[in-house]
Amino acid sequence: MLGLTNEMGSVNYTHEVLANIVGLSTMECYGVVGMASKNAKDGLWEILKKESLSKGVKINSRDDKLSIELYIIVEYGTKISVIANNIIQKIKYNVEKYTGLKVSSITVNVQGVRV
């Protein structure tokens, strides 16, 4: 659980809440088909449904800063580097704006391309 503390009190966030913010922010970006998760049964990557977006996100914290790793599937014909840069900017902005926590790094892993 991550949080902020000041003279007025404290606010704590679970990893699930932060992962949902990351997942929803990612899905707002042009060119993203969906978040991806590895299927334990057959080892293949699958697109997650909207209610499971947090499964495509890993969050670590160190020294009150977040390190975010996410797995996505992009649309065929789009420039992946532009999509990744847009995702990074959007996630950093939204997480810091909504929670007040600082983001130190964001890693975007493209697991597939879909038509």
From TrEMBL:
Domain of life: Bacteria
InterPro entries, per database record: Asp23
Family, similarity comment: Belongs to the asp23 family.
A Pfam match: Asp23
Protein name: Asp23/Gls24 family envelope stress response protein
PANTHER family: ASP23_GLS24 FAMILY ENVELOPE STRESS RESPONSE PROTEIN, HYPOTHETICAL CYTOSOLIC PROTEIN-RELATED
